[in-house]
Amino acid sequence: MSVMIEMGSGAGGAAVTMDLEELLATRLLVQGNSGSGKSHLLRRLLEESAGVVQQIIIDPEGDFVSLDEFGHLPIDATGYSHNEIAKMASRVRAHRASCVLSLEGLEMDAQMRCAATFLNALFDAPRDQWYPALVVVDEAQVFAPSAAGEVSDEARRLSLGAMTNLMCRGRKRGLAGIIATQRLAKLAKNVAAEASNFLMGRTFLDIDMARASDLLGMERRQAEQIRDLQRGEFLALGPALSRRPVNVKIGPVRTSARSSSPKLVPLPAADADFGDLFSGLADAPPPPPPPPVPRPTPAEDMLRALESAADAPRQPTRGEMLEVDEETRARIIDSALAGVVAEGGSQPLPVLYQDFGVRCRMLGLAGQALDLPSFRRRLAMAKAGIPADEEGWEGALALADIVPEDMHPVLLLLARAARDGAPCPTDDELAHIYGTSSTARLRRVLAFLEEQHIIVTRIDLSGKRSVTLPSLGWTTAPSVAEHEKPQARVARRR
């Protein structure tokens, strides 16, 4: 079904429309200097397509929260943990809810980390939730910078990776990236290059005009017209807009941003006396205290689907958070690890480590329960179902030390099944514990382990797989599910 939305008027007052279905397949890049009308353009696009397709907005300035008039759920990221942000994104994806993630109250580094967590959770949704959605990222140069800035390298890497996934691989998952930036020169090229539709607003710097002309397929001297564009005017090009660059004046919108352009107001009268403006400071009353910071809306109420707050573990008081004996300490660590494994999903290790520390404190364990290397080892063991106090795992753990850390859960789960003589885990089970939904990626992990002579895989004539760990002398039973070779499936279809 083709849905056309009217963006504005072109030459002679003719309507300029956008093919929404084509936009979902080809993505959009909006560029223009501050004050050129980018936010107005995005608001027009969102208002006209509301009710037709799910919309998810990453809003660093909090300008789009007024879209709640169209049913968008405002999410103020301030006050939530990374784990909660990821859960929100998962629920938004599953229930096809339009939302605005406002990052206004966060520092730049925290904005990038939060956006990366949210986008990655959208990207990692199960296949049956790959519904079409517009993912709008305003001020995209913040989240996909072309060069290192004042933020940490880790935050930049996480954010840039999430934006690259959105623009390069999001289409197959139904995610159509719409990015807006003030300057093309500040936006990472591998992110900008994936867009096939362009709306170029007013810009003055030669380097930005050169990149804009390259994207629009114009000669450099023709690109001079970009300087002459008025506020709210854009050059449009792309399969969802026009096969040739056309000038479009963006139409009106029904909602407005909380911020607006500054307006001139009259100055005080020319004869005003400021001579005693700073006198009597010692006797002046103190300024009023700042208003209290409102507590964030519970994620449960916001998404109407998270666990009830009453079911959450009780937070111990400071007096209750005392040192405990070793048996109780071990039990708390096991319980916290079990919670992380159950709810952590494919979150990055630092996020899981933070979640683990919070769970330990909530259960009354003071201090640092585990350092990061110990947590990484215990997390892999917990994912594989290996108790920390069970004997006989020294050989398997020594094998894990010679492979990359992200492969530890896969190897230990195979060792668990092999030691018990249980059926070999399926590709889906191993992919889940590895933190991916791609079985092809999992098979590359198994191939690596076999190349290193750590495991030996055998597939019998019925297609059932068994795995042996030669150095330990352990072998799994044949798998229950059938594992066929790709060549066999192709032959059968023929």
UniProtKB/TrEMBL annotation:
This is ATP-binding protein. Keywords: ATP-binding, Nucleotide-binding. It comes from the Bacteria. Residues 284-297 have a biased composition (Pro residues). Residues 14-73 form the Helicase HerA central domain. The keyword ATP-binding applies. GO terms for molecular function: ATP binding. InterPro entries: ATPase_Atu1862_pred, HerA-like, HerA_central, P-loop_NTPase. Residues 278-299 are annotated as: Disordered. Pfam families: DUF87 (PF01935). PANTHER family: HELICASE MJ1565-RELATED.
